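Got a spare moment? Tell me how you read both lines of this record:
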Amino acid sequence: MKKIYTLIIALVITAGIANAQDGWVTHVADNRVSVKFPVEPKELTPGSFITTDKAGVAYVFTVVDFVQVAGIDSVALAPMKATAEFAAQIKTGLLQSLPGVDMTDFTIGTYKGFTSYTSTGTDAAKKKYDMFMFIIGNKLYSVSTIAAEGSPTTGHDTFLGSVVVKN
């Protein structure tokens, strides 16, 4: 009897995951990382892609090459990327492009063996910013959502869960 319940629960979860991703479009950033958007994204600035869903949730995927923007290669980046000082510098740079957004300090962790950062924020319009970033080599990959307070989180969870890193 327990096996039947376990099987039913597994089927319901699998069906829910499969249905949640129906129609989502895979966007390939480079030869290492891809992510799924609810609809085809538009390039906002070079390396930054955005779209919104029917609920008004914005989905943003950005790739920053530290060699191009700061002249820092992966060798120079390696000893500093997991430090609080480096995370604070990323936050400062990010807030310059997001005036009026109040962000929490970045939490440093690992994602699939790579240094990662997470943060949340809000603005005066009561929009919530959820950010997840990770570094591979000399590139920072950022997957973020911006949603009005009380918006459904289904798309957010699908978006963040759709990141694929190829070895």
Observations:
- The first helix runs from residue 2 to 20.
